[in-house]
Amino acid sequence: MLPTLDAVSAALSGLQGVASHLDGLSESKFFAGERSLRAATEDLFGPARSSRRGRIMVTMPSEAADRPDFVLDLAKRGMDIARINCAHDDEKAWTMISGHVRAASEIIGHKLTVLMDIAGPKIRTEAVAGEKRKLQVGDRLRLVAQGKPRPTEDGEFAATVSVAEIVTRVAVGHRVRYDDGKLEGVVEETGPNEAVIRVTHTKTGGVKLKPEKGLNLPDTALGLSPLTTKDYSDLATVMTHADMLGYSFVSHADDIDLLEDALAKFPARLQPLGLIAKIEQPQAVTNLPELIVRARCRNRPFGVMIARGDLAAEIGFERVAEMQEELLWLCEAAAVPTIWATQVLEDLVKTGLPSRER
What we know:
Elements: H1 2-15, H2 27-30, H3 32-45, E1 57-59, H4 68-76, E2 81-85, H5 91-108, E3 113-117, E4 125-129, E5 134-135, E6 140-144, E7 157-161, H6 165-169, E8 175-178, E9 183-190, E10 194-202, E11 207-208, E12 215-216, H7 229-241, E13 244-247, H8 253-263, E14 274-279, H9 282-286, H10 288-297, E15 302-307, H11 308-315, H12 317-333, E16 338-341, H13 346-351
Parallel strand pairs: 1-2, 2-3, 3-13, 6-7, 13-14, 14-15, 15-16
Antiparallel strand pairs: 4-7, 5-11, 6-10, 8-9, 8-12, 9-10
Helix pairs in contact: 4-5, 8-10, 11-12
């Protein structure tokens, strides 16, 4: 950025007929940042294909564990990074998928990389009541910390939550979003074991209440650790089979240290494990410069994933386009490779037209 500013200053001086005080401007300095970004990108993601600069990341379905031909076909069609979501399946499936990716890489003669995304404290619905009818604006939804959800006289919709703390930490007036923003409501009442939500918005036609759907609470400070007991257990498999680790729920620079302390307990690798910080919460957006600096101090290949679905549910869909551009600019200036996710190619696959969400 500094050579760019110097070049602008020198050009303005020339236009005014004034000698510039800047010496030593060169093409090499001007493009040093781009070279640094390209080097960091290749170090983290592997070499680009000759036909394009960007890489394509594909999230592996469960069936990939038993279908090496499926993984090979994806590789032949342009996949560069295979993402394994550790919120699903198990160590055996992850090991098989990563093995299929390595084999496919050998067959096509192009380095493929594996990103294993640890789950973090996923906040979801569990058991539900009232699934036979769709939630509409004005309905009441009870979120239950523990126990079986049940209909009441003032509302038939209820759901037990996967993280009990969200019920005890929400306050009246806090917003709650369900299933990537398909439904939004406001907390009307709180109690020892439940919070009552008044639905204020749904997608057209209403929304069915289902288990295993995400909940976002943009106004609530949950104070949850980004590493769960399951994550600590999964790290052994990540260290053995992955090229990169996707770090969910990271919000503060201290979260980087927490992960590094956990990774330090494993034997050193020949190739360092890359770290991908998933930006999916408002605090992560605010603290991104600090996250970048702290990660760089660890001398580990580092990148950022802009998790647009979760981020939209946290900050609001109307701000996503603006915010993702700012995050991309900031990462570019810091020579930090960026994954722009998720479902970026969904419209292209389904309709033949590229996404216009940017």
